[in-house]
Write a structure and sequence with these properties.
Layout: H1 4-19, H2 23-34, H3 37-60, H4 63-68, H5 70-93, H6 101-104, H7 107-122, H8 125-134, H9 146-176, H10 183-206
Helix pairs in contact: 1-9, 2-3, 2-9, 2-10, 3-7, 3-8, 3-9, 5-10
């Protein structure tokens, strides 16, 4: 189906892309810093679930709409930016709350984090355009069904993202455990997180195709 050389190149490129600072891995990093390992992993699962939508869109050609229609791109872009700004406001609003892992790791809270991660990823039209531009580069028409090849590549990308983002979140949490014992540190971390999300939202709103 997919040549070994192409597959290895894809794995290497995907790994580096996952490490490159972006809205998704920065958000996972903040979850690890301010909440828990489980929160970071669940957020990662939500983000990766969004990649299924983008892969499907690339296969079906829906991503072309975002690439060719300024209106469609802008609508999704501004909705995504507004959602990031909303999350930033919520984090800032609750900046003085003490860290309580029993609450942070409750089923309802983890479900909310999963949904937030999913919506964040899906409402970023640049990801759809990226998938449309990135995946076909590693597809060989002579090797068989193009749609299946793109689906496999999308699945590999999702698994790599899940692994790298989870490591980022867990590492951030391990490094911050001692700091989080101090209420003031938690407050400053929450404020920092809100400003990071604010900047990511503004960056998305001002982004071009």
């Amino acid at each position: 189906m997919i040549e070994t050389t192409q597959l290895l190149l894809f794995l290497g490129a995907t790994f580096l892309l996952c490490l490159a600072p972006g809205p998704d891995n920065i958000y996972v990093l903040t979850q690890g810093l301010t909440k828990s390992k489980k929160a970071a992993i669940i957020t990662t699962l939500g983000l990766c679930s969004g990649l299924i939508i983008h892969t499907s869109a690339a296969i079906l050609g829906i991503s072309v709409i975002f690439q060719t229609s300024e209106l469609a791109f802008s609508i999704v872009k501004y909705i995504g930016a507004a959602y990031l700004l909303y999350i930033a406001f919520q984090v800032f609003k609750h900046r003085n709350e003490r860290l309580d892992l029993t609450v942070q790791n409750s089923t309802s809270e983890l479900k909310k984090l999963f949904i937030k991660g999913f919506i964040m990823n899906v409402l970023n039209p640049k990801v759809s355009i990226f998938f449309l531009a990135f995946l076909p580069q590693f597809v060989n028409i002579q090797e068989g069904n193009v749609s299946i090849q793109m689906f496999i590549l999308g699945l590999i990308f999702m698994i790599m993202t899940l692994f790298v983002f989870s490591v980022i979140g867990i590492t951030a949490n391990v490094l911050s455990l001692k700091l989080l014992e101090k209420p003031k540190i938690v407050k400053y971390m929450n404020i920092s997180t809100s400003f990071i999300l604010l900047s990511l939202g503004l960056k998305l709103a001002l982004s071009q195709r």
